[in-house]
Amino acid sequence: MSDLTTQFTQAQEDVKQLAERPGNLTLLRLYALFKQGSEGDVQGDKPGFTDIVGKYKYDAWAALKGTAPDTAKQQYIALVESLKNGTAA
């Protein structure tokens, strides 16, 4: 495993151990960065208007279209670190 993949995996564990649950916008950002880093560009159909949470998740992920998976992993790691240190916006 590459060093980036190891850090990405560790950040996934770290985010589960946060003392405080992040806000909804931060959770969406984490979700989108995770999906982009692990699966690449958004896939599948956009959920319908009755699936509000699914629609927001899809839109957050779609906003990262074209972002390299390694870049998304680095941003995910940085966001988790800022949450751990209490410096996230």
Percentage of residues assigned to helices: 55-70%
> In what range is the share of β-strand residues?
under 5%
CATH topology: Acyl-CoA Binding Protein
Ranges with pLDDT <50 over ≥5 residues? Answer: none
- Give the total of domains: 1
Rounded mean pLDDT is: 94
Q: Largest sheet at a glance?
A: none
- Oligomeric state, counting identical vs distinct chains: single chain
Distance between the termini: 31 Å
CATH architecture tag: Up-down Bundle
CATH class descriptor name: Mainly Alpha
Tally of individual helices: 4
Instruction: Spell the H/E element sequence.
Output: HHHH
Task: Please provide a written account of the structure.
With 89 residues, the chain is mainly α. It has one domain (3-85): Acyl-CoA Binding Protein, CATH 1.20.80. The protein contains 4 helices and no strands. It has helices spanning 3-16, 24-39, 52-62, 69-85. Helix 1 crosses helix 4 (69-85), helix 2 crosses helix 3 (52-62) and helix 2 (24-39) runs antiparallel to helix 4 (69-85). The longest helix has 17 residues, at 69-85. The radius of gyration is 13 Å and the shape is globular. It starts with a helix and ends with a helix. The model has no long low-confidence stretch (mean pLDDT 94).
